[in-house]
């Protein structure tokens, strides 16, 4: 039997936006069909062999009932088809209503091509891996914040176990010879809850058949789906660095998008600091940390929450940087307007909601300071109201705590901790280059204390 034709439905796109979509799928076996709200019902009814992979809807500022239009399109295409809305600036105040009506992600107009391309390709992969059937009632429980057994639920979306390199790090299914079709509920079993945070609940899960373990990060509510999709896009962009936790897939259950990530076994850097770390290990860990952050910065990714608790060390000594939940892709979005983070690793500008790439350099500097002195530059107890933090406190020079520390290494640490952005390293690559140029022997355990 011939496979269904994969199709993208568009509504109200300008010629320029339609051309952009056509260019993005030009090498794929995908149809693009322009419809109106008046024609979508008949199209779906009369084209049963069309597999709808994605809907793109341009919000009409002149139409008073845009949420109702979104609901109608959603009713016609089904609950699982990814739905992207293009929103004029004057309509941004209605975003929550559009998402509640059935949209999964939004792009502000005028379009930033980089931002649009990333969201478009992530959602397209989701639509191509769409699971059509509802899971059996006797299948494994959903990976969701509650453990209540649902007799009916939306079903699972299977996404990109084939997260391989491809066009801009994406590999749409039409380019893959073997695409898996099992339902996610038949593949993953909950093992135990690993933690709960502001983002949601983290579960350890196991894949049936292979016994591969993974981590499932489930948001507290569908309102947080946008953050999940953007975290997935960031992990996708950084997939080729060995110190990045790998994204396995994204699933959808009961309206929530869930990240399935590589499970990294080992203690956190914070746990290792409490036990004690050798000088050699500290230097090797730090070189890996600065390398992965440098890689992220080259891709214009700002992490914003680098700290020992978000770094895991494997039994082979490999560093893994975790938790891109509040990260920003600066190629299409700003980092301003939020003071999220961990106060003892946040620079003054981050408290003020004005994060930048150099904000991660400060956090790296705090880690190097801890390695050099077994103390933080200064300590603040208020971790819940960062806007109330005293940002006038000066970092103590590390040689006041450890007089044996090399003066050149102190210079590097203190440059990381400059409040004046013009005096701080601009990015982790600049820091990495200075460290290697100034101390070619760094990594041999000769410069940091045990």
Please outline what is shown here.
This protein is an alpha/beta fold and 450 residues long. The protein has helices spanning 15-24, 40-46, 66-77, 95-101, 113-128, 225-237, 269-275, 279-298, 348-351, 357-373, 407-416, 428-438; strands spanning 5-11, 31-35, 50-58, 83-87, 105-108, 188-196, 200-207, 213-219, 247-253, 256-262, 301-302, 311-313, 319-321, 328-329.
What is the count of β-strands?
14
Q: How does CATH name the architecture of the largest domain?
A: Orthogonal Bundle
State the end-to-end CA separation: 66 Å
> How many helices?
12
Structure explained in plain terms:
- By secondary structure, the protein is of the alpha/beta class.
- It has 3 domains: about 5-130, 3-Layer(aba) Sandwich (Rossmann fold), CATH 3.40.50.2300; about 175-260, Phosphorylase Kinase, domain 1 (2-Layer Sandwich), CATH 3.30.200; about 270-440, Transferase(Phosphotransferase), domain 1 (Orthogonal Bundle), CATH 1.10.510.10.
- It contains 12 helices and 14 strands.
- It has a 5-stranded parallel β-sheet, sandwiched between helices.
- The radius of gyration is 24 Å and the shape is elongated.
- Mean pLDDT is about 80; it is low at about 130-185 and about 380-385.
């Amino acid at each position: 039997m011939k496979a269904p034709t994969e199709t993208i439905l568009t509504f109200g796109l300008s010629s320029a936006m339609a051309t952009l979509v056509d260019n993005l799928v030009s090498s794929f076996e995908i149809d693009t069909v322009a419809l109106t709200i008046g024609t979508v019902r008949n199209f779906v009814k009369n084209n049963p062999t069309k597999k709808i992979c994605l809907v793109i809807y341009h919000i009409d500022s002149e139409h008073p009932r845009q949420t109702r239009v979104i609901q109608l399109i959603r009713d016609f295409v089904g609950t699982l088809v990814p739905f992207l809305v293009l929103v004029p600036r004057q309509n941004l105040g209605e975003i929550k209503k559009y998402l509640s009506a059935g949209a999964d992600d939004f792009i502000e107009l005028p379009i930033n091509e980089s931002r649009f391309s990333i969201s478009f390709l992530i959602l397209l992969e989701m639509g191509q891996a769409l699971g059509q059937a509802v899971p059996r009632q006797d299948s494994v429980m959903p990976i969701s914040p509650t453990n209540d057994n649902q007799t009916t639920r939306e079903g699972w979306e299977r996404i990109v176990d084939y997260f391989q390199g491809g066009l801009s790090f994406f590999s749409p299914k039409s380019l893959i010879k073997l695409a898996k079709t099992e339902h996610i509920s038949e593949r993953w079993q909950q093992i135990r809850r690993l933690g709960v945070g502001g983002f949601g609940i983290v579960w350890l899960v196991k894949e049936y058949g292979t016994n591969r373990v993974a981590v499932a990060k489930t948001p507290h509510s569908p309102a947080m789906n946008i953050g999940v999709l953007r975290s997935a896009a960031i992990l996708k962009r950084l997939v080729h660095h060995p110190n990045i936790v790998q994204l396995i897939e994204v699933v959808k259950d009961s309206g929530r998008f869930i990240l399935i990530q590589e499970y990294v076994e080992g203690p956190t850097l914070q746990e290792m600091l409490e036990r004690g770390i050798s000088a050699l290990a500290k230097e090797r860990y730090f070189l890996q940390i600065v390398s992965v952050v440098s890689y992220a910065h080259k891709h214009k990714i700002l992490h914003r929450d680098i700290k020992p608790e978000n770094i895991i060390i494997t039994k082979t000594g490999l560093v893994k940087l975790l938790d891109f939940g509040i990260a920003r892709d600066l190629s299409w979005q700003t980092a301003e307007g939020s003071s999220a983070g961990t106060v003892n690793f946040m620079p003054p500008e981050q408290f003020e909601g004005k994060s930048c790439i150099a904000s991660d350099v400060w956090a790296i500097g705090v880690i190097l300071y801890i390695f050099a002195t077994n103390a933080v530059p200064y300590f603040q107890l208020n971790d819940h109201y960062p806007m109330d933090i005293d940002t006038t406190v000066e970092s103590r020079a590390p040689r006041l705590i450890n007089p044996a520390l090399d003066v050149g290494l102190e210079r590097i640490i203190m440059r990381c901790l400059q409040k004046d952005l013009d005096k701080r390293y601009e990015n982790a690559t600049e820091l990495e280059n200075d460290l290697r140029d100034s101390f070619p022997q760094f990594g041999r355990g000769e410069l940091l204390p045990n």
